[in-house]
Design a protein that fits this description.
- The structure is a single chain.
- The chain has 191 residues and is mostly beta strands.
- It is built from no helices and 18 strands.
- The chain has strands spanning 26-27, 31-34, 40-41, 45-46, 52-56, 62-65, 68-71, 75-83, 92-101, 107-108, 112-115, 121-122, 126-127, 133-137, 143-146, 149-152, 156-164, 173-182.
- The chain has a 4-stranded mixed beta sheet with strand order 2-9-8-5, with no helix packed on it.
- A hairpin with a 2-residue loop joins strand 15 (143-146) and strand 16.
- The N and C termini lie far apart (159 Å).
Length: 191
């Protein structure tokens, strides 16, 4: 009856929700290292929990094993981090620049002590660099230099400087040592 104010109806409605994955926000900052630094670990942060994997475009500059980087030479290269998808995020990708700069060489140039009548001798130094050495004897009254060979001229002390040229991985360097020339013992003979 249309005048009856009671009305009853049953309606079934089905709603389907689909979870949409989003792209992760990955932070991966540029890094600058010095050639002779120890291995280091790459570090990226993300809004996702997916696993990171790293690749380096120029493996002569650096190599990566897991997240550990070993420096190979001076230069710049692109480092890429790939992040796997997780339950809420798509897979992601980010890159940064790894720059490796020249190191200062470690030069070992030890003091030398000689006697006045000692023969000529050669100067030598060792270094972490392969750059060429040049030497300077500051007091030529003590000794004179011909390339690397020193001739003793007198008794006393002189600063000796070694300059090392730069190479592909090291800056130029300088070191000093002291050359000390003592009096010779007199040889006295009785006849």
């Amino acid at each position: 009856d249309p005048t009856n104010s009671t009305f009853s109806s049953t309606v079934n409605t089905q709603i389907t929700f689909t979870q949409v994955k989003i792209d992760p926000v990955i932070a991966f900052e540029n890094v600058t290292k010095v050639y002779d630094e120890n291995d280091f670990n790459l570090s990226a942060t993300s809004s996702s929990t997916g696993v990171f994997s790293y690749t380096i475009s120029n493996t002569s500059i650096a190599q990566v094993n897991g997240s550990t980087v070993t420096i190979g030479s001076v230069g710049a290269t692109t480092v890429t981090v790939n992040q796997a998808a997780d339950s809420k995020n798509n897979a992601g990708l980010a890159s940064m620049t790894l720059t490796v700069i020249k190191a200062n060489p470690i030069i070992i140039f030890n003091d030398i002590t000689k006697n006045y009548e000692d023969p000529d001798f050669n100067l030598s130094a060792t270094s972490s660099s392969t750059g060429a050495f040049t030497f300077i004897v500051s007091n030529t009254e003590i000794g004179t230099l011909s390339v690397t060979s020193v001739s003793i001229n007198g008794v006393g002390a002189s600063i000796v400087t070694v300059n090392q040229a730069a190479d592909s991985n090291y800056n130029s360097g300088i070191a000093t040592m002291t050359l000390t020339v003592n009096k010779s013992n007199q040889a006295i003979s009785f006849l």
